């Protein structure tokens, strides 16, 4: 892709949902006004502390276009995904007289877009919102697909709504300021897309893992676009996770338990990396996944600097949390595993001894 090219990926438009586009490229700001639209009088730009300048620049730009624009600054990372911060946003909307035709813009990483989308889903029972993801993870996953939400002390994303955005603008230039640990953490969801659906992603990363760790790598745009296409295909046919969408949860059953155990101080992508290692070992021990594909998880995750291990002594607590994962049904634990490369499937009610053995490979 040349630096001027813009890729457009269409999402939804089936089962009564409004279609929207994910744009990937550079200098996409000119698209924002059109997405906000003429019916809106007010626009609220929700941004994290780390992007205070970006948030204010967007607010000023929207004000120049004639909107009553406000900026709502929220804490960085998971500290934004709380009921208290959502209430703070609702207060700001109420005080600015925000109506049903007004629009929320969420600019930031996945934590910010999850929160902004959730505030949009709940304000007046649902207003239009636009996502401007600024991390790899938010571009390839969080901002796409309409899952919005916040955490509670009891678990990850326990409160939320399906509320797709009106558009998603992935400006690759935003990635230049991202700390390397956050860049790499987003690669976990990219690698997830590779294992569940598009192995070319794995080939591209394996061809030069060090280059994959930076936005200036030769395959950055292709990795992001391929991952978005994986997600777009899935959520376009199953927005509300009645079946197929569960494959996007690969590695997440353990990951969310680790995040809760760490009081949301771990990056989501790091936890997903450990969770995929666990899911691969579970698949292998259950006799479903071949050794080569299971081993490939370790090598590729490690090659980009993602973690494979977590504390062995925490297993009882992690198991308790996993029992109330959103994929559980009654007392039935359910995991996404692979029957082979790009063959994700649901594994229901694994033998507790197999679960423990799989964690034996992950625990340290
Ligand atoms: N809704 C979904 O479908 C979905 C999918 C995947 C993940 N998620 C959620 O996404 C969240 C993780 O998102 P994340 O990995 O983007 O982390 P994040 O949103 O916590 O961002 C990481 C840090 O980077 C900062 N930041 C963001 N963009 C920056 C930039 N361009 N330059 C400098 N700093 C920047 C943020 O303020 C934060 O401090 C989790 O809460 C996870 O549950 C949601
Ligand atoms: O979009 C989905 O569906 C996913 O499962 C993508 C995940 O990467 C993402 O972390 C999602 O927020 C997890 O959803 P949850 O329903 O398990 O909370
Ligand atoms: Zn995720």
Automatic annotation (TrEMBL):
E.C. no: 4.2.3.4
Catalysed reactions listed for this entry: 7-phospho-2-dehydro-3-deoxy-D-arabino-heptonate = 3-dehydroquinate + phosphate
UniProt cross-references to Gene3D superfamilies, sorted A to Z: 3.40.50.1970, Dehydroquinate synthase-like - alpha domain (1.20.1090.10)
Residues of the 3-dehydroquinate synthase C-terminal domain: 186-328
Pathway this chain belongs to: Metabolic intermediate biosynthesis; chorismate biosynthesis; chorismate from D-erythrose 4-phosphate and phosphoenolpyruvate: step 2/7
Keywords: Amino-acid biosynthesis, Aromatic amino acid biosynthesis, Cobalt, Cytoplasm, Lyase, Metal-binding, NAD, Nucleotide-binding, Zinc
Main subcellular location of this protein, as a coarse class: cytoplasm
Enzyme class, UniProt record, top EC level: lyase
Keyword Zinc: yes
Top-rank taxon: Bacteria
Matches recorded under Pfam families: DHQ_synthase (PF01761), DHQS_C (PF24621)
Compartments where located: Cytoplasm
GO-annotated biological processes: amino acid biosynthetic process; aromatic amino acid family biosynthetic process; chorismate biosynthetic process
Residues noted as binding NAD(+) in the record, renumbered to the chain: 110-114, 134-135, 147, 156
Record note on cofactor: Binds 1 divalent metal cation per subunit. Can use either Co(2+) or Zn(2+).
Domain 3-dehydroquinate synthase N-terminal: from-to ranges: 72-183
Cofactor(s) essential for the protein: NAD(+); Co(2+); Zn(2+)
PANTHER family: 3-DEHYDROQUINATE SYNTHASE (PTHR43622), 3-DEHYDROQUINATE SYNTHASE, CHLOROPLASTIC (PTHR43622:SF7)
Function in brief: Catalyzes the conversion of 3-deoxy-D-arabino-heptulosonate 7-phosphate (DAHP) to dehydroquinate (DHQ).
Family recorded in the similarity comment: Belongs to the sugar phosphate cyclases superfamily. Dehydroquinate synthase family.
Name of the protein described by the UniProt record: 3-dehydroquinate synthase
Species this protein is from: Streptomyces caelestis
Gene from which the chain derives: aroB
């Amino acid at each position: 892709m040349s630096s001027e090219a813009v890729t457009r990926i269409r999402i939804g438009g089936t089962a009564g949902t409004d279609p929207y586009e994910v744009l990937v490229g550079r200098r996409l700001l000119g698209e924002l006004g059109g997405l906000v639209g003429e019916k809106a009088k007010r626009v609220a730009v929700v941004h994290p502390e780390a992007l205070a300048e970006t948030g204010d620049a967007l607010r000023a730009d929207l004000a120049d276009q004639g909107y009553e624009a406000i900026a709502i600054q929220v804490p960085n990372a998971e500290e934004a995904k709380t009921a208290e911060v959502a209430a703070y946003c609702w207060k700001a909307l109420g005080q600015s007289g925000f109506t049903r035709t007004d629009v929320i813009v969420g600019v930031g990483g996945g934590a910010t877009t999850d929160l902004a989308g959730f505030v949009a889903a709940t304000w007046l029972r649902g207003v239009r919102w636009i996502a401007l993801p600024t991390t790899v993870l938010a571009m390839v996953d969080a901002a796409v697909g309409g899952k919005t939400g916040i955490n509670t002390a009891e678990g990850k994303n326990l409160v939320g709504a399906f509320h797709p955005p009106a558009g998603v603008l992935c400006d690759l230039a935003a990635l230049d300021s991202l700390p390397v640990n956050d860049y790499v953490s987003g690669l976990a969801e990219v690698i997830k897309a590779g294992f569940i659906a598009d192995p070319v992603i794995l080939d591209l990363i394996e061809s030069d893992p060090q280059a994959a760790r930076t936005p200036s790598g030769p395959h950055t745009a292709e990795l992001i676009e391929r991952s978005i296409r994986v997600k777009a295909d899935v959520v376009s046919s199953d927005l509300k996770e009645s079946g197929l969408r569960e494959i996007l949860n690969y590695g997440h059953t353990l990951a969310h338990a680790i995040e809760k155990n760490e009081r949301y101080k771990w990056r989501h992508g790091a936890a997903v990396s450990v969770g995929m290692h666990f899911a691969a070992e579970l698949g292998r021990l259950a006799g479903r996944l071949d050794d080569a594909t299971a081993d490939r998880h370790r090598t590729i995750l490690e090659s980009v600097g993602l973690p494979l291990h977590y504390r062995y002594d925490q297993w009882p607590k992690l198991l308790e949390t996993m029992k109330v994962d959103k994929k559980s049904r009654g007392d039935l634990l359910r995991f996404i595993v692979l029957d082979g490369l790009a063959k994700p499937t649901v594994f229901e009610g694994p033998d507790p001894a197999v679960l423990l053995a799989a964690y034996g490979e992950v625990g340290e």
